[in-house]
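Lab notebook, page 48
Experiment: co-folding of the full assembly
Goal: obtain a model of how the components sit together before planning crosslinking
Operator: M.T.
Materials (sequences as entered):
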Amino acid sequence: MSYPELMIESIARVEETRSSRLKQIMPRITLEEKQILLENFHPDYKSESFRKLKIGPNRGDKVPHELADLLEARSRIEPKDFDLSRVDYETEVLVIGGGGAGTAAALTAQEQGIDVIIATKLRWGDSNTIMAQGGIQAADKENDSPVRHYIDLVGGGGFVNIPELARALVFDAPMIIRWLESLGVMFDKEPDGTMKTVHGGGTSRKRMHSCRDYTGMEIMRVLRDEARNRGIHVLDFSPAVEILLDESGKCAGAILYDLETEEYFIVKAKATIIATGGMGRLHVQGFPTTNHYGATADGLVLAYRVGAKLIFMDTVQYHPTGVAYPEQILGQLVTEKVRGMGAQLVNNEGFQFINELETRDIVSAAIIRECTDRNLGVVTPTGMVGVWLDTPMIDIKHGSGTTQRTLPAMVRQYMRYQIDITKQPILVYPTQHYQNGGILIDENAQCSIPGLFIAGEASGGVHGRNRLMGNSLLDILVFGRRAGKNAALYASTTKVNSLTLKHLEKFHQELIESGVGLERVSPMLLPDYSSHLSKIRRKGGVIIA
Amino acid sequence: MKTLNEIEVTKKSEFKSTDTKMEFVNIFFAGKRYRVLKGLTILKALEFAGYRLVRGVGCRGGFCGACATVYRTDGDYRIKVGLACQTMIENNMYLAQLPFYPAIKAFYTVDEIKPSGDLFLRYYPEIMKCLQCNTCRKVCPQDLDVMRYIAAAQRGDVSRVADLSFDCLQCGLCASRCPAEIVHYHVAQLGRRSYSRFMQKPSTHLSKRIEEINSGKFNNEIESLIKLDRKELEIIYSQRDIEPEEEIAPKKDED
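Observation: model returned without errors.
Model output:
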């Protein structure tokens, strides 16, 4: 495949400026300049893409239309007719979600001597965790400290992070790395055991720990292997479709839906942990996404219906460097580590336009400005626009072979389309990457509903309005562990009364009274990517606008 | 035999650009023919054909191994394999998915897997049945030298197994085609955990920092930061010193 003619001409301009750019560092911009850039070019500031919720704990708050459509929707079951007397599974802790946060939570709960069930929508481990390439932050080097980590975290988050959550994240970080080390996670280390660490966007110290560029996959492989060894009970292809409460209003488990047999199963649990991840597959504002197939905000929908409050849902993280070419892998992630190692962002004329290690929101807005307002983007044959990420700079700076050794996944990905990233730059454009907000939790990972705990991307507050690279792999483990531990403690002292879905009846009533109606159904569970053509065929040849 | 104008309907909705010429090809999924747009990956082609997949799809980015696929191209007797999210379709491609393989896994605690000459033999004695046919290597969608790490496992060379197998997605294709019925990807998992737990040195800077945190060394500083208002925090943030990028030394050793 390689590059078409027009793009090759642009690459020549990138090559022409490369040697002078090698010595050049773009100055960082001021907080005022950042604010102007965000207001004009960041998708979060496009007010027509949001609407105020009409019902629920966040009534009056604005969220993206795509999420509002799911929050303001009815259940797939009819609560009045649903028989809750037939309990299929009874456990002390139910973990909903089989990614990094859920598996860490399950392991930790089990360490407390508690019965655990993991219910997961796809295969165990199919998650955003497994796709996280870059690394995990922890302030464990001599020149670093948790205090510095805290400052970077809240600065990156727009100074609105919930302080208690931020403190928990930075204080637990080294302990989490030690836990992973003891389980046999293969970190990049010096022969003497010193962790090899690099920068990520918005870090003031090099505290990004990595496992080549398969960091998340390595962590997930080990956690899953450990949980298999310990015999943790897993129900796969069984997403939760409703949270159950008991008569006293405590969380009491969930209703699962088996995607293959199309049956409903009732799990009665003393404590429940939602670790269902984010909402990339809603394609907010039509953006492509880096997220896995199951990232459809199910956990937010479930928690919202039982009265849990959401926070910062008006902000979405766009990863600045999603693939813009070739079309087949559009929107997939180009890890931030590429910029961390010195690859610069360059426009169609071959010039830099932003310091590539600014935070993700800033870099994304700068790329959008380059491609829209300034008209200095590179256009692909399918009409996609992007800017260059000058990957050959990595080997020039660090010695030939560095890219192959430290970014094997990236090299492999592009070689499938005959693009050698060590020789040619790659075209990138922002892609929907992360849900900055989520279900509001406290430092014990508990939400406002007794017995309901939240971990990972489904939770909100710790990252403020913008998450930094490497703080998400950290977050899922810090709050996964905290959720597991606290859910186990809670479960050992609580009793569940008879199960009820009255909250759902009330929610449906609210939908009717607010005028939203009962047309839409959620959670989404899986996105529908069948072609327009096939959708027409399903409707019997009728073309629907 | 068409009831809808495929090209017209497709042009309107699947791609932004209208000047790209739409071409269609045939693929055979589990033997059944579908007409799909040319230039798609197997995964996108199945979806184009109308499938809403439950199994055989995961991260869609080449990391999870859920979409392992076996296929054969027109007129060729050879069976090929690949990840559906990463492999391009060809005209008259015959394919089937292999989203799960019933491989055996050994159970162990991490403390009992110290590196030793017989580590792998204890848990996976069948590795000695390797016929050196190299099929495992040929089918690996990650192009790993699978047979070589199995040879290393036979010798008990834990670090070699860990290094050579590191990029494994655990898709199971190697095990599905192995005439000796070896479960390569589980052997590799055992090797990597043993290596990391026992052969990599623990980080001393990590222990030191954990001790400092537990002794409360940073508590006062953090508490005073928490008390600051936004303006004061902004000043601290914008004045913080940033470790220079240049200090990354070129690394030439093994990663």
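Interpretation: The CA atoms of residues 42 and 239 of chain B lie 51 Å apart.
Next step: discuss with group before ordering constructs.
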